[in-house]
Design goal:
Layout: H1 3-18, H2 21-28, H3 32-46, E1 51-53, E2 58-60, H4 62-90, E3 94-100, H5 102-119, E4 123-129, E5 143-147, E6 156-159, E7 164-170, H6 172-177, E8 193-195, E9 205-209, E10 212-216, E11 222-224, H7 227-235, E12 241-244, H8 249-253, E13 258-260, E14 266-268, E15 271-275, H9 283-298, E16 317-318
Parallel strand pairs: 3-4, 3-5, 8-11
Antiparallel strand pairs: 1-2, 5-15, 6-15, 6-16, 7-12, 7-13, 7-14, 9-10
Helix pairs in contact: 1-2, 1-3, 1-4, 2-3, 5-9
């Protein structure tokens, strides 16, 4: 339906409801002569007279009555649809679809989940754990969470965790029974707990020392795609684990896990939530981002991982190559 045709139908319903051209024109913000011409154009296009008009009264014809019975419900339904979509602009409600990297679930999602659910009970979080670099727009996601260096250049990104590093760890009990590795190559002598990404890949362990980077193809008797199981297995002395330091902070601080090869630890960029545009952001997404930013401020100071545009002053960065 063209805009002019919609305007004609709205004008017809307004005149029929009020039985008066002047009152209908005032409601529509038109002059009476313009409204009269609009109705004449509609009647000419339909080839029927819709109103019988005199200088004192306006009444629907038989054809006009039938037409009103069909048009009025349709316009009412359209009006309700417009009101509904307008309300959703300001109300955090509905399904929020997120594509989240494995490590980000424990670091970013878990800390805010209970509070977010309590604050916004009408928002349903549909979280897909995905370590691929798929297109969130093509996947019909509202947003994604990845490390800052793996986000497309045309996305808006907001930092939601501090930078960290990848380290190897083991329990005191494991180290009491096995020699402590002094170089990454010595991991070949140990039982290593390996993590399988959602893509199916089991990556080698990467290390860096003074600009020298190496990858080690480790071996071990446990491979899992569950990060918590990696940590539990390391705590239980099964072998050496390899993960983000921030994911194991509490265990390291309390001595349950011992960092290994710390001079070889690999820097790891912080996580960002990213989405296609700031234009008319859904309220449900804005509420979620606000929760993530508040939680990030409780941690280490934010460090931008890419050049920032003017939006950076508000905590939003656009990543560039």
């Amino acid at each position: 339906m063209r805009g002019a045709q919609f305007a004609e139908l709205a004008a017809f319903v307004a005149v029929a409801d009020r039985g008066n051209f002047s009152r209908a024109a005032a409601i529509l913000g038109l002059s009476t002569s313009t409204l009269s011409q609009t109705i004449r154009s509609l009647e000419a296009r339909l080839g029927v007279r819709l109103f019988n008009r005199t200088t004192r009264s306006v009444a629907l014809t038989e054809a006009g009555e039938r037409f009103l019975g069909q048009v009025h419900p349709a316009l009412d339904e359209l009006g309700r649809a417009i009101e509904s979509i307008s309300a959703s602009r300001d109300t955090a409600a509905g399904v929020l679809r997120l594509s989240v990297a494995s490590l980000a679930v424990g670091l970013v999602i878990d800390p805010i989940l209970p509070r977010f659910r309590a604050a916004y009970p009408e928002v349903t979080l549909d979280i897909i754990v995905d370590d691929s670099l798929g297109d969130i727009v093509d996947g019909k996601f509202d947003a994604g969470i990845r490390i800052g260096t793996r986000i497309e250049r045309d996305m808006i990104a907001v930092r939601v965790s501090s930078d960290s590093r990848l380290i190897a760890v083991a329990s005191p009990a494991y180290l009491a029974a096995h020699p402590r590795p002094e170089t990454p190559q010595e991991l070949a002598l140990h039982n290593c707990i390996r993590f399988r990404k959602t893509t199916g890949a089991v990556d080698p362990w990467s290390f860096e020392n003074g600009g020298e980077k190496i990858e080690v193809e480790v071996e071990g008797t446990l491979i899992t795609n569950n990060l918590d199981l990696v940590v539990r297995a390391a705590l239980d002395g099964v072998g050496i684990g390899y993960m983000l330091e921030t994911y194991m902070d509490a265990h390291i601080a309390e001595g349950r896990l011992v960092p290994l090869l710390t001079s070889w630890s690999l820097p790891y960029a912080g996580y960002h939530i990213f989405y296609p545009s700031r234009h008319q952001m859904p309220a449900k997404l804005k509420a979620f981002i606000d929760f993530l930013r508040l939680d990030a401020r409780r941690g280490a100071p934010e460090k931008p991982t890419a050049p920032m545009d003017n939006a950076a002053a508000h905590g939003v960065i656009r990543l560039r190559a």
